[in-house]
Amino acid sequence: MRQGWRWFGPKAPVTLDEVRQVGATDIVSALHETPIGAVWTREAVEARRDLIETTPVGRVPLRWSVVESIPIPDAVKRTGGAAKAEIEAWIASLESIGRAGIGVVCYNFMPVVDWCRTDLDFVTDTGATAMRFDFETFAAFELHILQRPGALQDYTPDEQARARTVFEAMDEQAAADLVRNIASALPGSTTEAMTIPAFRDRLAAYRDVDAATLRRHLAEFLAAVTPAAEAFGVKLTLHPDDPPRPLFGLPRVASTEADYAALFDAVPSPANGMCFCTGSLGVRADNDLPAIARRFADRIHFAHLRATKREADPRTFHESAHLEGDVDMVAVLGELVAADRRRAPGETIVFRSDHGHRMLDDLHKEVTPGYPAIGRMRGLAELRGILHALGHPPETRAPAS
Fold first, then answer.
1. Which EC numbers characterise this protein's activity in its record (predicted)?
2. First-to-last CA distance in the chain?
3. Could you list the residue range(s) of the whole structural domain that residue 81 is in?
4. DSSP alpha helices (H): ranges in 169-276?
5. What is the pLDDT of residues 171-214, one digit of tens each?
6. What are the backbone dihedrals phi and psi of residue 127, each rounded to the nearest 5 degrees, phi first?
7. Residue 299 domain-assigned?
8. Which of 304, 318, 322, 357 is catalytic?
């Protein structure tokens, strides 16, 4: 297995030399500055690749091995194969990536909003901070700030009353922070920042899209792009929904083992794979993560390894330390190691320590929410220790380009 690190580009708070220092060998990145739906040119992709892979004298080499992500335009999610221009542009970006020698692309198919949290700096019992999704705070946002039509029917009278109490306790700054956290696109998001009126308009555009329709649109998209992925030597990996359940009255179709089984049955191409995110899938108690890893072992080309902890109301959760929470990381890594050992040279699984607590010096400096250096370094070190204990230590040098 190979140790990846999500890097947000030249302006990121974490430098490439700091990535080397934590022990990672593989970069997970994207052209975040490119507008959603615009083609990634071969020149732009190769320039970013060369920036990452041109190794200063005396330094450990790095390799850009995973793209996370090429955003999928809203029109594709709403209309599927009918969004021909948007799909052709996505394929053009895919070709640029394949021609540059990058073999894995991660993407998601979450409508309107990408990953969602209500709090970016929830204070844990150690004094470090973590990201959190609080169900009552989310309900307060949906019912009293967004005022989504039809939202009341999704909440019991008791839940509505508690949401009102939460909302009435917010001051102006707390309400603004909540809008920023939910509607303004978190780091790495593949959806656009929205004002509240724009948010309502976007939701209205999905009025006739139910789960069956969204699943069909995903299958139509993949049917169109997987032949290109095969031709360019790229594996596509679908990231799970985060949280893995419907939000804002919208369906989500990558939340369970059954969702992925249906996807692989619909599009059996070997290029149609999975990003195995233990944090996202682990929010649901009914997801057996080791069993999912075992069943889809041949489809997992990229892994996000992190843990979440369900609270008293299991719809509320926070990001825990990597070896705590509700994810049996040792069992998960045991399955991934078994899968990795069966693979041909050069096809090993890239993993990254996903997210991390804001701790130590990172509490006092600017960090990318969800991606502080020290918390992720702690997680990567813990994961690396498990791999050593399993007799399958990760590679310590990037493979030759």
1. 4.2.1.8
2. 17
3. 2-116+203-389
4. 172-183, 196-205, 211-232, 257-266
5. 999 999 999 999 876 665 667 778 899 999 999 999 999 999 99
6. 95, -15
7. yes
8. 304
